Please model this.
Amino acid sequence: MSDHRHLLSIRDLSGGDIERLLTLTDSFVEVSRRRMPKVPALQGRTVTWLFYEDSTRTRLSFEQAAKRLSADTLSFSVSTSSVNKGESVRDTVETIEAMGVDAIVVRHRSSGVPHQIAQWVSGSVINAGDGWHEHPTQALLDCYTIREHLGGLDGRHIALVGDVNHSRVARSDVWAFTKLGATVTLVAPPTLLPPSTDGWPVRVSHDLDAVLPDVDAVYLLRMQRERMDEALLPSLREYTNRFGLTRRRVELMDDKAIVMHPGPMNRGVEIAADVADLPRSVVVDQVRNGVAVRMAVLFDLLGSGRDLDTEGTR
Ligand code: CP
Model:
């Protein structure tokens, strides 16, 4: 990725790019375990965020990552900004850039906004989730977490279960997982799948019980009720009966298979409350790894010419 200025989409990365970022993440996991988890790698650089949609994990972990790299951070809240007076996205980013920022982390409800912003600014743009399109750093932290627990993705079988159609996480994970050699099966009712999966490197199933014995990881997608503008399901209870990961269904899985979720979880809908807390659930590891992965992404985009061994990790 060092020849890219931005991180907008997993589809822009090769399997080698992803592997290299995961290896870089190893260094920052080591930094994060120190008593003083801070390095001077991005001293003199400034990072800001432009979140037009709510976030807990992504926003906070980018902030933590930037601070651990000693970057300056420019705090910006859309909800208390002049966006409320009608300021356009373009005027907002040009205003922010005029103050001297090196990277803007963007989340927006509309697909393609980070790509558009990248046309307007000279610094780096990182997509922190755009509409139904992509969430590339989520996919990187998911790959890192699978590698941590299963040793790698090559030859692994991963089921992505639930609301695929509205999920930017699914669209990034499908490409990241398969670029690293995994097989992906989408498991969902037809109404929660995209109208066409032509060109997607996936299998499709509507029968979770049949798929579970064969997977190394089951990745539950959040039921995105805020993005559903029509009745796509008879009821949430019916959905949970057929596609929710319950204790009974966990018994169908291999002993070593893991359970993942990007958060925030709807406990009792796509995942039973007690399943979310099982030892095989790696949801908290996903969040923890998100900080180191985002340190790797920021360093890769902004640390050009800096030596990781002398400035990054010592
Ligand atoms: N997984 C994820 O993107 O969570 P947030 O919406 O809390 O950032």
Summary: The first helix runs from residue 15 to 32. The mean pLDDT is 94. Residues 136-283 form a domain with the Rossmann fold fold (CATH 3.40.50.1370). The radius of gyration is 19 Å.
